[in-house]
Amino acid sequence: MSDEVPKTQDLIKSIIANKTPVASWMDTPAVIRPGMYCYSAKAKPLNIVGMPHGREWTPDADDWSLPENWMEILSEGLRDRLDRFRSLKVFMDICVRCGACADKCHYFIGTGDPKNMPVLRAELLRSVYRKEYTVAGKILGKLVGARPMTAEVLKEWWYYLFQCSECRRCSVFCPYGIDTAEITILGRELLNLLGLNIDWIATPVSNCYRTGNHLGIQPHAFKDMIEFFVDDIEEITGVRVNPSFNRKGAEILFITPSGDVFADPGTYTAMGYLILFHYLESMGLDITWSTYASEGGNFGLFTSHEMMKRLNAKMYAEAKRLGVKWILGGECGHMWRVIQQYMGTMNGPADFLETPVSPLTGTKFQNAASTKMVHITEFTADLIKHNKLKMDTSRNDNLKVTFHDSCNPARAMGLFEEPRYVIKNVCKNFYEMPESTIKEQTFCCGSGSGLNAGENLELRMRGGLPRANAVKYVHEKHGVNMLATICAIDRAALPPLMDYWVPGVSVTGVHELVGNALILPGEKQRETDLRGEPLPGMEDE
Amino acid sequence: MNFWVSLISAGVVVTVLIAIGALGAVPALQVIFGVAVPILAVLIFLAGIIWRVVQYARRPVPFAIPTTCGQQKTLPWIKHNPVESPNSTAGVVARMALEILTFRSLFRNTAMSLGEDGPKITYGSTQWLWLGAIVFHYAFLTVVIRHMRFFTEPVWGLVHLIETFDGFLEVGLPGLMLSGFALLAAGGYLLLRRLAIPQLRYISLPNDYFPLFLILSIAASGILMRYFVKVDIVAVKELAMNIANFKFAVPEGIGVLFWIHLFLVCVLLAYFPFSKLIHSGGVFFSPTRNMATNTREYRHINPWNYPVKIHTYEAYEDEFREKMVEAGLPVDKPLDEEATAQ
Amino acid sequence: MSALWGLLKKNRDSIVAIWREATLDTYPTDASNFLKKSKDPFHNPVGKRITQGLAEAFDILADQGETARVTPFLDDVIRMRAVQDFSPSQAIGFIFLLKGIIWEQIKKDAEKLADSPDWRELDAKIDGMALLGMDIYNTCKEKIYSMRVHEVKNQCYNALKKSNLIVAIEDMPDDQDGSLQ
Fold first, then answer.
1. Cα(B90)–Cα(B79) distance, integer angstroms
2. Which chains touch A (3 or more CB pairs under 8 A)?
């Protein structure tokens, strides 16, 4: 060991230095990295729903085969939205770049990429807005943070607008309530004018449009899949539940994300719903599923306001056709953002429905008097409060549960206590994650807003690190082994996230826990939970 | 925009403005700098603010998109947070008041620390931004109210009251007013913060430095005039009263510092509506804060809601009727004989 | 215990601090400030893992512990770097930084140790850590790849499609009047 050593260090340091260039962010074009982006939307799914400029293109190619007048389309699109959305206009003008949001984004925390700071993500659009719509921007250009639209800028928009999960955490901390999700939603809407969607969003959208759900499951197959669950439930409990589909005259229509029907562990949550409904049937619950409105999720929200409306319309249309009194909604995140903040406005008034009343407790859900749609944890919490459910909670005794607030129910609804109340009444071991990572400050799973594809796993793992880190804390401190959530994207995205960062923690929906605990009349001695795993005390049998 | 370019260009502009302001001391130009410029600046300020507010106000709010930061109003036995998740106008007013008067959201910037008995919220260094911002804004407000002394005769009671509080230390002659120094200190902090924290430096534009330089120069020149390089205060009051009463005569012998101070204030007024400083008006229009979270109970109306094309149940059934019938799913239109025969 | 190991322990705090600093310096400038400064373990998991992981790994090294014992601590650091914007050499290069840092920190006291065989042992131990780092990096990457495959399988799209349970998108008609969004 001698004097060469510092030289070695210099050498290595030069290899690993990955410094942001001193150049301004405006002069630093985006580098489109594999693992960070989702595959581009193909022509077909766009054509099916009549979205413009469907074509084959690849994000890492130089030429995106943009329509010739793309700048005009974009410029006109921006002007139109500035006129129609006060939010956009206000958010374009009032940011003071105080930096309060900068370190609140899970993607920034996990990636360190400065353009993942919410303020800068928004500045990508603001810089173009200033150039086109402010006098100072037109004259002084970059001196006042204005720059012209170019193909490079467009690529940067695309890259970073699909690295925002629209979770709205930053909007909690902004002193003016600037909501990056709103900017991302409208930014993606603009990109869609040029056919620049991602496949993971565009294909579910077209599937949902035609067949009623994201995977394109046809009606008979949808019924078949639920019937698989019926068989499984019979095997586990000895009771055959009897769901109905598209049944006219039912009192309540049930809509849940199709993820609960086709992907584990959401399927166990679906079994939980089925068990609950069966339990309540003899007590007067009259509920039906629909194959037409078989998707609660709405990837239209990640595409454009118009697409959101077109997909959401099915809920009321089906409720009207079947003649139900009100709608019960399953556990889903962005579905509930749409229901809470958009559905009534877009597709209401739902005056053909009645203010929801629980047929079991008589509770009137006044808070849903206009949309006529109730969240299933509100419904179940009310049942538990009124002692309507007979449960053996010891079946969940092997679980140490924590609860991940999904972004949308948290920051668009304020649905904090209902799911917690349900969980605490069906499990004896419940532990909260640290305060700054739950409720309104909850961290995103890292895969929201249509970003839960396979090709961008690196982005998802980084973005989910803050969430996983908080889970790891309760895992190590309290032995937490189950992460409960009320979102279908969470149920799809969190298992790999846990697998990578916190092995030993599984993911569940809240109603899977309910289904395990609920004692069905006439059921046999259960030996396994809904997953087929032995119940506590049954391990040796 | 490179950081140095941002900083220097903003600095150069303010220096030039100071130089221009100094021209006010030239007797021949005093009607321009003492009367025309201030009146013009006030007119631009008022017209600009009105224009901006109208711009925001006339734009529709198509959807109710409040950010909920507390428990929603739902079942009667679940404790509702009426301010962080307001479901009534009163709640919204309370939320906006907290936001505007106490910078509620900025105060959320807490940190967690891991103690023996688990994680704890700590209030500390992360709230310096909140503290700096709140001192800056309230000091600014106090200074503005104190300056009403120049435009009112007799001086308003409010001004006396504010001065009593502001000068509570009762030291020095003329009495020391804290607000000016607080403004300078807080503004200095906000500037230093921008310079010292790399991610802030990275996002800062010349138009972030410019207003800070401008306000700091205004505060500094004001403090200099009050305590160190005295100007003829009686003449200043005379000028202010003249302008307030639309009399266009400029008294003689006011020091050059005053002319700089006045000109920078005029620039600030004229710049205000067209810059990020409009956040003061814009925040009232922020839909994530000023809307109730009761959209499931009361329908929000979108004035430009338009009909869209949807895939109807009829079209859906037409496509899948055969499979639906086969699977035992009810259909609206039965399969006709021919179709079954095929 | 020989003098070299004693020096490592004596200079432990400064070595670990510089190693941490240098490792965090490999992140973009404007982020590295946040990563270094924020002490909130839930708000700044990257900073926390690096701070803890490197300190623990160094302590094992200075104790002449089994190199394998550093695995969980290096894992905390490399697991992140495997999904961040680093090439493989960049992702584990921070381990080699330790050699130079140690030399810089103890050289004024280490002149008389120039011929000590302990240097070779230290050298070998750090190399061993780097090799471990390569294993960890590779394990993480393999995990990502297998998860990617699993994601695809999990969707069971193809199975459904084959059994004619869903409509393939290729078979759907286009929307003819192409209403513009």
1. 17
2. B, C
Residue A533 DSSP symbol? P
Calpha distance B218→B221 (Å, rounded): 5
pLDDT of C163 above 80: no
- Strands A373-375 and A401-404 turn out to be unpaired
The contacts found for B52-56 with CB under 8 angstroms, 24 or more apart, are: B52/A93, B52/B273, B52/B278, B52/B281, B52/B282, B53/B281, B55/A89, B56/A86, B56/A89, B56/A90, B56/B281, B56/B282, B56/B285
By DSSP bridging, strand A287-289 and strand A252-255 are parallel
pLDDT along chain A (541 residues), means of 10: 46 47 81 93 95 95 95 97 97 94 91 90 96 92 92 96 97 96 97 96 94 87 92 96 97 95 91 98 96 94 97 97 98 96 96 97 97 98 98 96 97 97 97 94 95 93 95 96 97 95 97 97 95 89 58
Contact residues on chain C for A216, CB-CB shorter than 8 A: 166-169
Q: Boundaries of CATH 1.20.950.20 in chain B? A: 9-285
DSSP C152: H
Touching chains, B (3+ CB pairs < 8 A): A, C
Which pTM value belongs to this model? 0.93
Q: How far apart are CA A127 and CA A118, in angstroms?
A: 14
Task: Note whether B276 contacts A346, CB cutoff 8 Å.
Answer: no
CA A167/CA A409 separation, integer angstroms: 10
Q: Exposed, middle or buried, B329 (CB in 10 Å: 0-12/13-18/19+)?
A: buried
Which residue is closest to B128 within chain A, CA to CA? A100
Whose tokens are 């047929």? That residue is A359
CB contact under 8 A, B297 and A369: yes
Q: Determine the residue type at C4.
A: L
Contact A311, A208 (CB under 8 A): yes
Domain limits for position A357:
203-517
Tell me which CATH code domain B9-285 carries. 1.20.950.20
Question: Does some domain include residue A527?
Answer: no
- One-letter amino acid identity for A443? F
Of C42, C140, C178, the CB nearest to A470: C42
Whether the CB-CB separation of A520 and A279 falls below 8 Å is answered with yes
Number of domains chain A contains: 2
- Does A411 reside within a domain? yes
Q: What H or E segment, with its residue span, contains residue C159?
A: helix C157-162
